[in-house]
UniProtKB/TrEMBL annotation:
TM stretches of this protein: 21-41, 47-69
Cell location: Endoplasmic reticulum membrane
Organism of provenance: Phyllotreta striolata (Striped flea beetle)
Single Gene Ontology BP annotation: signal peptide processing
One Pfam family per UniProt: SPC12
Record flagged with keyword Endoplasmic reticulum: yes
Residue ranges of the region described as Disordered: 73-96
Family: Belongs to the SPCS1 family.
Membrane topology, record value: Multi-pass membrane protein
InterPro entries reported for this sequence: Spc1/SPCS1 (IPR009542)
UniProtKB keywords: Endoplasmic reticulum, Membrane, Transmembrane, Transmembrane helix
Recorded superkingdom: Eukaryota
Name of the protein: Signal peptidase complex subunit 1
Biased composition (Basic and acidic residues): 83-96
């Protein structure tokens, strides 16, 4: 059984932009809060822990292709038959 048929693995372009923007906002927010909190209690390790928690949260929210990121899928053109395309190019390429 193929897992890609069970779970969707794609994300549209606007969803990618949304995920990137969300990840930057979350990481910046957690970084600022961690820096301020670490400065207040004079523990750099707390800054790193808070930033790590922000990274984990960001990863859970942005890496999986949630339906939030698949709202506007691309409409692809139908595939051409490769046999017909090869015959057409050989006919056009010949000079008489």
């Amino acid at each position: 059984m193929d897992l890609s048929s069970i779970f969707p693995t794609h994300m549209d372009y606007e969803g990618q932009a949304r995920a990137e923007k969300l990840s930057r906002i979350i990481l910046t927010l957690f970084g600022a809060v961690g820096l301020i909190w670490g400065y207040i209690i004079q523990q750099f390790s707390q800054t790193v822990y808070i930033l790590g928690a922000g990274f984990v949260l960001t990863s859970l929210l942005t890496i999986p292709p949630w339906p939030l990121y698949r709202r506007k899928p691309l409409n692809w053109q139908p595939a051409k038959n490769p046999d017909n395309t090869h015959k057409e190019t050989t006919k056009k390429g010949k000079k008489k």
